[in-house]
Amino acid sequence: MVLNFKNPIRRFIRGIVLKWRLEVRYIIEKKIFPKIKNKKVLLVGVEYYTENYPKLLKTNDLYTLDINPSVARFGAKHHIVGDISDVDKFFPKESFDTILLLGIFGYGLNDVQGAEKTLENCSKVLKKKGLLILNWSDIVDKNPIKPRSLKNFSLFSPVSFNGYPSAYRTRQNHIFEFLIKK
Ligand SMILES: C[S@@+](CC[C@H](N)C(=O)[O-])C[C@H]1O[C@@H](n2cnc3c(N)ncnc32)[C@H](O)[C@@H]1O
Fold this sequence. Notes:
The chain is α/β, with parallel strands linked by helices. The protein has a single domain, classed as 3-Layer(aba) Sandwich (Rossmann fold). It is built from five helices and eight strands, in the order ααβαββαβαββββ. Strands 1, 2, 3, 4, 5, 6, 7 and 8 form an eight-stranded mixed beta sheet that branches. Strand 1, helix 3 and strand 2 form a beta-alpha-beta unit. The site of S-adenosylmethionine has 19 residues, from strand 2.
């Protein structure tokens, strides 16, 4: 569980743990969040370990979305219970500067058709040159979707982001893609 430590020593220890043991969280919280300040953001997928994210993203116009109604309490003030592949039904075209699609492929959204629809509709609700950040687990039998093999991956251009290339593989074989809408 990711705890929100107030004590400076605990915060320091948590920083080290994040960097070396929980690289995914380190990249999300320390490398991505500071670079998207003040933007209009859609965070897809919320959980008990992301409950401090609305606070970490307090400068943002933040929306959260999750298909599971029972996790709505971990979402932002503007939270939608729904399927990300239908995101164009919930928001007008060109709504967001950034969409964070973190740990969704392979964690509920497991079919190629749904993944294609998700990329297409995320592209619709992103502003021109908007940023889609994707994170997925490249672990055998875990995720049948390889984003780069999807047809609609071509709606985006991979870019480097805050020192990380797209794609970037963590020590635990999670892959980040940093994608700009074409
Ligand atoms: C592994 S958690 C990821 C949480 C968070 N995004 C993170 O930073 O790791 C996966 C979440 O995605 C949600 N989810 C799975 N499929 C979804 C879909 N099609 N649309 C919206 N949310 C979905 C699940 O309900 C779950 O809460």
